[in-house]
Fold Prenyltransferase.
Amino acid sequence: MAASNTSSPNSALYDWAQLVRLPNVFTVLADVGAAFLLVAGGPQPVARLVAVILAGVCLYWAGMILNDVFDVEKDKAERSSRPLAAGRIGLGKARMAGWALLLLGIIIAAVSGYLPAQDRPTTWVPGVIAIALAGMIVAYDGPLKKTPAAPAAMGGCRVLSFLLGASPCMVMAADEPLFPKYVLGAACGFGVYIMGITTMGRREAVGGPSHHLPTGFLVTCFGFILLATAPWLAPPEDQVVLLDWDPAVVRMFPLLIAMIAFPVVIRAFRAVRSPSPAHIQMAIRVGILSMIPLAAAYAYLGAGQVWAMVIFALVVPSLLLAARFRVT
């Protein structure tokens, strides 16, 4: 009996990977990295890019851990195989790890704005965005989780995650907005998209007809529209002169987003028509992992096809790990 309470290092790592929903972390690498590439036009300054990505990962993992900490009693009834619900990871240890990662993410983000960056000035913006993101994470995991505002809070987390990626390149100026309109448009597109996916997933464990499914489907589609049109918020002259975007890429961008959206829309529509847990969970799984090609499209717009392929390549480890770990 005593042996059943012990675990090898490998099994312990597996439990922590399950707790943080390891396949999903590549969506954070993708959207934070793509936002940086979009506004910087490339990976420079590298130190700030690496730091802000690390900050995004810490904050995301904190959110995943604290999500299960807050939901441990519910999981014992509905998802007894989860690491905390099953007792494979101690609740106190998970709580400490979650809050520590939250604080670490804020610190790394704040430092990222002050790392050497050639001709770029220092900026406090990443620290402020990280604090806002941490607050939204706690609000979603805690008081908002069981309310109608939960999907909007989850969407807000993705808005702030994208803005976090762009933030090391942003400096407050008296006569200019903090973030360009096209960056805000893209961030809102990702946020609305995830809000729709989250709305659809509210009954993933039990299935059955629900207004959440058609509502989430429509919100998801609206998110795709925002993502497809956000680059148009940049004035045409800025697209060529300031941002150095390829006009051909700008013209074909809505088609590129539509191609990525197609499999998500098909699976989401199937879940609406036949709301079994399996169909809903497949739609959510595909929807979450499609964050990576969507982010790659924005990397393509801002930094070209090589960096787009780097971001898109994150699909490979994400899919491989998704075969072993749940993404929801």
